[in-house]
Write a structure and sequence with these properties.
Layout: H1 2-13, H2 59-64, E1 72-78, H3 85-90, E2 97-106, E3 109-118, E4 127-133, H4 139-142, H5 154-164, E5 168-172, E6 179-180, E7 183-184, H6 188-194, H7 201-214, E8 236-246, H8 248-260, E9 272-276, H9 283-293, H10 344-347, H11 353-371, E10 381-384, E11 390-393, H12 396-405, E12 417-423, H13 431-443, E13 447-453, H14 477-488
Parallel strand pairs: 4-5, 4-8, 8-9, 9-12, 12-13
Antiparallel strand pairs: 1-2, 2-3, 3-5, 6-7, 10-11
Helix pairs in contact: 7-8, 9-11
Length: about 500
């Protein structure tokens, strides 16, 4: 009942972060970095990433543009007879499989993708395919992205379970991610310019995924390494290509699904998709929620400064800028009323939500004014009502562009089967936004199943802290994977 109370209050007195948005629908470690240069060693020419208009990244524009790619094998990670740390960990009680790194192109950028191939007999129609899209990595770690070739990673477990179920799995690194044979993937300058509070980088990453999707057919005739145990032609079922993404990858997946459906320029279609703790909220909502939740206690404490999982304090006082009841699960306790925080003080040191939001808006508008030709001197302002509740007033042109970039606003474009997986207390993917997305798509003739996992973390695990994961909470990870395998198998 406590969480229900929060939902009702949020619609009545808070700005639109928990799904009460009233905007209308738009109708239109085997392979870690191999001695890469650090970002500070690189000379990045930001003119390469300037764009004419944000409209270039709108859903309708992305649907009309062409996509293409061809794959080339670059590096074998292991074959069915190799024994290394990865295979010893995963193959002790499971069928071995083949793993390699491929190269592909995305808008003249040379990028990488891991591929994992079952060693089981090829199905009559060829192996079905899963594209697995990773979450946010960040500029500092992007060059060293290891394509989840780490036995302790739950991403590695995702890949393993899909391959054991008979899927060929493609795990792309996206632009600027990964270093293979000493060569960094192209596109680091895009991460530096756009992977910030403009919340625009997922659109560029979606282009990479769509180009990869267009190139899947080329895998069938690809020439493998001369000593590869694989057959000369890999039999894959291009009628059963699926996509799965986590966190920021969920935003990318939602965009790819919206663009791929009914797109005459993209011949390769998707069978189904799944999103795990997806950060697919409208971009204005991401800006207003994610930053404050990670830097200001005002975002999640009650009106009297205690944590009640509500805006209402123990004394009845209301925090009118309360955003969401659950901060990061790794805080030992969200309640600092007893002054029992140590290291947490530095992370959540910003006094108010307004200050954090203002910093994020400054970064967004600086990015757009500097790198988008048809946006000049755009500005915003933040208004306070009589209770101190903040309201962001965006530049009308910027707001229009942002709305046109949100796949969330185009439920009519989703014809593929889709599963949403999320916790009931993950602020990156709030339940109300998942509910709203599934309802809108289903009302427009789509097919979405919305799964909520009680007490789970952003990684679909159980937190060690009982304030977040109550006693008796079970991890939803394996159940999520079983549901995805079943969805993608049909």
């Amino acid at each position: 009942m406590k969480l229900l109370t929060i939902k009702i209050i949020s619609c009545a007195i808070f700005f639109t972060l928990l799904g009460c948005d009233t905007s209308t629908r738009v109708s239109e470690t085997a392979i870690t970095a191999e001695n890469p240069s650090t970002v500070t060693d690189q000379i990045i020419n930001n003119s390469q990433v300037n764009i004419t208009s944000l409209n270039e990244l709108s859903i309708n524009r992305l649907k009309k543009r062409p996509y293409q790619a061809n794959f080339t094998p670059l590096k074998e990670l292991h074959n069915i007879t190799t024994r290394n740390d990865y295979t010893k960990h995963f193959f002790s009680n499971a069928s071995p499989y083949y793993s390699a790194i491929l190269g592909y192109q995305s808008d003249d950028l040379s990028l990488y993708s891991r591929i994992d191939i079952p060693s089981t007999p090829v199905p009559k129609n060829g192996f079905p395919v899963v594209i697995f899209v990773h979450g946010w990595v960040g500029l500092a770690k992007a060059n060293g992205y290891d394509f989840s070739y780490n036995t302790q990673s739950n991403y590695a477990e995702v890949i393993h379970q899909f391959v054991q179920a008979g899927f060929v799995v493609l795990t792309p690194g996206l632009r600027g991610h990964g270093t293979i044979n000493g060569v960094i993937a192209d596109g680091t300058e895009f991460i530096e310019t756009w992977d910030n509070s403009s919340y625009t980088s997922p659109l560029f990453y979606s282009i990479d995924i769509l180009n990869l999707l267009a190139g899947i057919e080329s895998i069938k005739s690809m020439s493998w390494f001369h000593d590869s145990p694989l057959p000369p032609q890999l039999a894959i079922n291009t009628d059963n290509v699926n996509i799965f993404g986590h966190s920021q990858g969920g935003d990318i997946v939602l965009t790819a699904l919206a663009v791929a459906g009914e797109n005459a320029t993209l011949k390769q279609r998707l069978n189904a998709g799944a999103i795990w703790a997806g950060c697919f909220l409208p971009r204005t909502e991401q800006l207003s929620l994610y930053g404050p939740m990670g830097s200001s206690t005002q975002a999640f404490l009650s009106g009297d400064g205690t944590w009640t999982a509500s805006a209402i304090g123990k004394n009845g006082k209301i925090n009118h800028n309360f955003l969401y009841p659950y901060p990061a699960d790794w805080i030992s306790t969200p309640d600092n009323s007893q002054n029992n925080w140590t290291w947490q003080k530095a992370s959540w040191s910003t006094p108010t939500v307004k200050i954090t939001v203002d910093k994020k808006l400054q970064q967004m508008y600086q990015t757009f004014n500097s790198h988008v030709a048809d946006i000049k001197n755009a500005s915003y302002h933040i208004k306070d009502d009589e209770q101190g509740r903040i309201n962001i007033v965006h530049d009308a042109k910027v707001l229009g562009f942002l709305s046109a970039m949100d796949a969330f606003k185009y439920p009519q474009y989703f014809s593929e089967k889709l599963a949403l997986h999320h916790s009931d207390r993950d602020y990156y993917s709030p339940s109300l936004w998942n509910e709203k997305l599934s309802q809108q798509i289903n009302q427009n003739g789509g097919s979405v199943v919305n799964y909520e996992y009680i007490g789970n973390t952003h990684s679909m695990k159980v937190s060690p802290h009982t304030w977040f994961s109550p006693e008796g909470t079970t991890s939803g990870f394996n159940q999520m994977m079983k549901r995805n395998i079943s969805l993608f198998s049909n």
